[in-house]
Input
Amino acid sequence: MSEKTNAPEISVKNVSMVFSDSKGNPVQALKNVSIDIQKGEFISLLGPSGCGKSTLLRIVSDLLTPTSGEVTVCGKTPRETRLEQKFGIVFQNPVLLDWRTVRKNIRLPLEMMKVPKEEQASRIEQVLELVGLKEFGNSYPGQLSGGMQQRVGIARALAIQPDILLMDEPFSALDEFTREKLNDDVLSIWRKTNKTVLFVTHNIAESVYMSDRICVLSPHPGRLSAIVDVDLPRPRNADMRGTPEFAALVEKVRNSFEGI
Amino acid sequence: MIKRITSSKGIVTAVWVLGLVVIWEICAFIVGATQRTPVNVLPHLYQIIGSFFDTKSITGSGDTIATLVFSSAAETLSRALIGFIIGMVLGYILALLMHLSHIVEKIAFPYLMIIQMIPILGMAPIVLSITGDISSARIIIAAILTFYPVSTNTLAGFKSVGRERHELMRSYGASKFQLYTKMLIPSAMSYFFTGLKISAPMAITASILVDTLQGGNGLGCMLSQSLKGSMTRFVFWDIVIFSAVIGVLSYYLMGVIERAITPSKRKAKKKAQ
Ligand SMILES: Nc1ncnc2c1ncn2[C@@H]1O[C@H](COP(=O)(O)OP(=O)(O)OP(=O)(O)O)[C@@H](O)[C@H]1O
Ligand SMILES: [Mg+2]
Output
């Protein structure tokens, strides 16, 4: 862990978040969560529904302000980093604009960043290539399958060339085959682009397959109950899913939930 | 095979129209058999349609029924159209303002409800006596009736834009202007058109109704003259059918315009077929 000496890319210190529910009662979504994430790391946030995974992702990307605690991203506040458009967010539901073609969906953030026209076009072709949707650039989202729509969401996030990729259960609505294919695609994109990735999931095997480290969150109130290092070699491939090392890690992660 | 034919939209419409014709004719026979007045108050359809193409003049100035219907329709419908456009623009602006500011919404919404609840039969004479001019009264009534469905539907459209869509725009650091032009306004487009589809036939009906309040030469005016017996009864039925057709067409026209300006709808439809 020689990187520990460098300043972390994302630093979350003692973050708590309290919402109020419809009756005005306080709901503690996160309690005293602290994580340091290094540049280029692939981190999973793993936990059951309602443990505050999305909330943590929103706090990091300045979509929510924590009740207490401090977050710094690239040495700045999340707000500064957001306004520099350093976050690429992929949502659980791909949030595509149904009146725009695939190309124009990917262009949306580039229009707002005032990227010059020629560069917009070249970036769009580049990310379409990356997610394997070259032939579908002029289709409308309604004409694509769920997996293809999710790829468009990923392409749009990559188009702004973010330093940090935040993915909130991007594949939870997809079937097992599509999910495993997209897992490999995301890993290969990550290898090529060397971004810091924060990946939310509630699938243990998925988190083991993808990550360098897994942050295990437990609910009521949401808190960090363990951080599991995944020392499987990279690049990962589908054969590893059957190895005893993989099974041992899945078991280790599962056990870190017990005793909550 | 049979399933394909029955599921086709054209067949459904044809059956529906045929059913209407049959019911009409049955009623015409019954009313005709029990008539107490010299003329049949409910003529057969072929008589009504025939009268429309009759070349015989029915006024002193040599108008046939068809030319009379067309000239009064031009008079009434042009005012309905102006009112419709004014109501649409103002309704849209109000929806924008209500969405931009909670205070505006809180203040304006009760007024909107009240305007909607006043029966148009009561509102029309008031508007007419204020303006003193049948043409502006028609425009104002059509505008008022268009205003409410357009603004409430469009506002509902703005509000239907989900949390994640807002978060997406926020993550790009979008300005308020960009949020509206790139996300909210296109998202609400189909709601806006729903409002237009509701209000287009209403604007037409309302202008005809305003006509009946005063002499002149609008559709409604001809209607009441025909009912009072100073013109043949066929004028009444011709105008009723003509207006119904125009009302239905105005509804479909909104759909046609919507598809013309939203290419994704056209493509999605193609895929479905
Ligand atoms: N805007 C909000 N207002 C009130 N309560 C909220 C809000 N957002 C989240 N919560 C609450 O905070 C807790 C954590 O929510 P969060 O969405 O972060 O969970 P999650 O781990 O992402 O769950 P899931 O896997 O179902 O997406 C939940 O109990 C939720 O009800
Ligand atoms: Mg969530």
About this structure: The mean pLDDT of chain A is 90. The domain at 40-66+76-255 of chain A is CATH 3.40.50.300 (Rossmann fold). Residues 176-193 of chain A form the longest helix (18 residues). The helical segments of chain A are 53-60, 78-83, 102-112, 117-131, 146-159, 176-193, 204-210, 244-257.
